[in-house]
Amino acid sequence: MSKQVSKSFLKASGGVAGLLILFAIIIAANVIISRVRVRVDLTGEKLYTLSEGSKAILAKLEQPVTLKLFASSSSPAMPPVLKNYARQVEDLLREYVVASNGRITLEKYDPVPDSDAEEWAQKYGLTGQPMDIFGPPVYLGLVAQMGDAEATIPSFDPQAEALLEYTITRLIYRVCHPEKPVVGVISSLQVLGTRAPPFPMPGQPKPQSQAPWLIFQDLRDDYTFRELQPSVERIDDDIKTLLVIHPKDLSEKTLYAIDQFVLRGGQLMALLDPLCVAEMETGGGANPFGMPRTSSNLEKLLSAWGVRYDENKVVADMRAISRVRMGDGGRIEESPVWLSLSRANTSAKDVLTSGIESIMLPYAGAFSAESTKDLAVTPLITSSESAGLVNSFSAQLGASTVRSEFHSGGVPLAIAVRLSGTFKTAFPDGAPRDSSGSNTNEAPSSAEQSLKEGRSTVILIADADMIYDRFCVQEINFLGARAYQPLNDNAIFFANALEQAAGSADLVGIRSRGTFARPFEVVLKRQEKAMLQWQEKEKELEARLQETQSRLRELQSEKDPKQRFILSEQQKKAIETFRQQEFQIKQDLKMVRKNLRHDIETLGILVKAVNIAAMPAFVVLGGIGFWMRRRSLKTRTGGDNRQ
Predict the structure, then answer these.
(1) Are 360 and 410 contacting, i.e. CB atoms less than 8 angstroms apart?
(2) Does domain 52-173 have CATH number 3.40.30.10?
(3) Phi and psi (nearest 5°) for 340?
(4) Residues 182-195+211-284+293-429+450-502, CATH architecture
(5) Looking at the whole model, is its pTM more than 0.85?
(6) For residue 463, is pLDDT > 70?
(7) pLDDT per residue over 54-106, tens digit each?
(8) Neighbours of 98 (CB within 10 A)
């Protein structure tokens, strides 16, 4: 008996000791893990992982930066959706703090009404959004400070969640580089406007000044635009970004200057055009000796970069047709060469095109290029697969001519692309020489002696008309004053591209982020499928209704006028048949909706069951497996002892 008691005591004490050891291991593991700084992003689209571009910009910070987040988190007026987004913003900002190695400090303020925090938010220019007429404003904005410089995001937009990282990194970059970037402009069009000479020629009418294109008027608060002559031989050193718009007949020395600018790290943005409407309308294409040539090219440079572009071909897309009035007061036709593009025609993963909903491109061209080990090619705007190239002259003759010559290639055509990486020179023999054999360009210093290659980024757009006033804005009369409203997202796309080109090269590498919203795609697909069935039934009902009404009108016309209020047996039968058909189709519609609800509810129950039961089932199965293994070991040990 004493042996049995002793055995039981040892078993019990062993179990208690095991529990104590397990408890000690858990405590020790928690202490060790809390001291080891290991961060793992388990979200599907790496929502808490900064892009390499952001990390590179943070690594270059020379002075400490303070980020001040103003969020009305305690306000009952702040919608739950906005509160959740505020937490997401704060979580991402803490990732910046960690990645900066102490160079970024995050401060959080809750600007309750009549508080010092609200007063500071207003001084910084943050935008308070009133949720109702009498309620207090709600704030969700960010201020970045470095020394005396500061920059702000007046308010975060949850709809622009995909651009969140790019917006924050750009803010940090701007506060570190507060000076306005200098952008050089080479163009055959008067995009920056013209000034009338103070003293006109005697006997000649006084020329009028021409205002800059509206998009440049809007952007000159952020950039210093410097006009360069088409005959320029060297790009100034303080110009880090170069805009080349509709270049025509550039000399070898100007092409060489652009070539060397790119190779020394300058950012180039070129807008070419196979058929420039802006030039035709402003008279820039006048040619007294024949038909004006309204195309532009950078053939020598493009060839060196492996890009093919035919300046005599325009894109025709049967899925991007626009309604266009041909000529002054002419007919309206559906033109496949005036492209009305949507979000589906842009790169969803690129911050440059994120949020772009519509693009209008009249007579656009196309680029053809493939990525190499040195140069990455990223399509930004593409046509649909139902597109092809047609002659630019034929494109002007109308939609019928275009359709007669049209042949689809079956693949999307790239209308705007970004090249990034190492560029090779288009002048391997050095600066071009004039007829006398001497270099046309000024002799460069030894440090700049004819660069052969260099890293840079080039954005190519095969349409210059996209930024022409009448293709991107509409003039309206607002309270007696002239105002403008966007027709499309042309101006936004151009501004985004210029911002990338004028900013750090690291900004280009920042990806468009995923979203925290994770819809049930299977549910949505089932709902869409049922909705399509419902729409088909609805169309069928409408078609039968029209057919029956038409038949009734025919019967009515055949009646004796004296008996117009008396229905014939044939009419009564037709009406009864229609009512039966209508009743049956309504029953079918009810069944479709019922099946839709049933499918969604069944799937919802299944998803909930999996979410609720998955972890307990996993624990139970693990426990059963552990018990069976332990029992097997005991049986084996008992057998060994008996032997």
Answers:
(1) no
(2) yes
(3) -105, 100
(4) 3-Layer(aba) Sandwich (3.40)
(5) no
(6) yes
(7) 888 899 898 999 999 999 988 888 888 899 999 999 999 999 999 999 999 99
(8) 13
